């Protein structure tokens, strides 16, 4: 088939997947690898560069280009445009791509719920089964004793980064999360051998996250990556890589199963760090609990009861462990 440079995304020509099926007999062995991969993962061209697709299929960028031309496209860019057009034009394909193959538009709510539970449970179990607890313990030891801990995450992973930072800060770990490249690079450049930097990326291919982690590594920090893709650039560039496992693909583009397995790993990491610094962690948690207690509404059962007299006030342990002090429901302004 000759090159058809005039093919556009908006015409009525056959879909890209149909073109692939028809051209299979004409393909070389290397092109067949690309074809089979794309038939199984039709959205890939929207997410991968030509080099990444070549690496994923064990071919070369030149082979990918010849593959596109065999299908009637001038190159990889118009090929990607055609794929995007097919996905947007075909509602059935859009459902499969954006929602997932595990769900169907006419499923009953109970079926949807059962599928969700099953998929999330399998993701959590697969992640737990494959976790290297020795690596988790090593990461926790490094974080517990470091001067500063940087956490990098973009988009949905930024939420995970903020959650981990908030929890570790409460147990006395000097840390900060970064979701903006320039600020993250600035912080990464200030790291040293007494610091730890963690990148959170489900795909492991988020460029900004990779750049921040690489900068921290060049500055001397010990680097860790949490990703669902052990062969990704983020994993390959880190001193220590922790792999999660999201079963199936649904709720695109922000797969909540991926978030849940990330939370499992982060929760475990938090607890292991707390174990490493048990005394400091418990003291810090006690101090923060006392600080926020007056700002929590009392349970309904106590709302209609008067406050206890001063003689019945309870005592609370101070963070320093040096003495006990009274906790009152009233506050006294500090003297200037």
TrEMBL record:
<dbReference type="InterPro" id="IPR001347">
    <property type="entry name" value="SIS_dom"/>
</dbReference>
<feature type="domain" description="HTH rpiR-type">
    <location>
        <begin position="14"/>
        <end position="90"/>
    </location>
</feature>
<dbReference type="InterPro" id="IPR000281">
    <property type="entry name" value="HTH_RpiR"/>
</dbReference>
<dbReference type="GO" id="GO:0097367">
    <property type="term" value="F:carbohydrate derivative binding"/>
</dbReference>
<keyword id="KW-0805">Transcription regulation</keyword>
<dbReference type="GO" id="GO:0003677">
    <property type="term" value="F:DNA binding"/>
</dbReference>
<dbReference type="GO" id="GO:1901135">
    <property type="term" value="P:carbohydrate derivative metabolic process"/>
</dbReference>
<protein>
    <submittedName>
        <fullName>MurR/RpiR family transcriptional regulator</fullName>
    </submittedName>
</protein>
<dbReference type="InterPro" id="IPR009057">
    <property type="entry name" value="Homeodomain-like_sf"/>
</dbReference>
<feature type="compositionally biased region" description="Polar residues">
    <location>
        <begin position="327"/>
        <end position="336"/>
    </location>
</feature>
<dbReference type="InterPro" id="IPR036388">
    <property type="entry name" value="WH-like_DNA-bd_sf"/>
</dbReference>
<dbReference type="InterPro" id="IPR047640">
    <property type="entry name" value="RpiR-like"/>
</dbReference>
<dbReference type="Pfam" id="PF01418">
    <property type="entry name" value="HTH_6"/>
</dbReference>
<dbReference type="InterPro" id="IPR046348">
    <property type="entry name" value="SIS_dom_sf"/>
</dbReference>
<dbReference type="InterPro" id="IPR035472">
    <property type="entry name" value="RpiR-like_SIS"/>
</dbReference>
<feature type="domain" description="SIS">
    <location>
        <begin position="139"/>
        <end position="279"/>
    </location>
</feature>
<dbReference type="GO" id="GO:0003700">
    <property type="term" value="F:DNA-binding transcription factor activity"/>
</dbReference>
<keyword id="KW-0804">Transcription</keyword>
<keyword id="KW-0238">DNA-binding</keyword>
<feature type="region of interest" description="Disordered">
    <location>
        <begin position="296"/>
        <end position="336"/>
    </location>
</feature>
<dbReference type="Pfam" id="PF01380">
    <property type="entry name" value="SIS"/>
</dbReference>
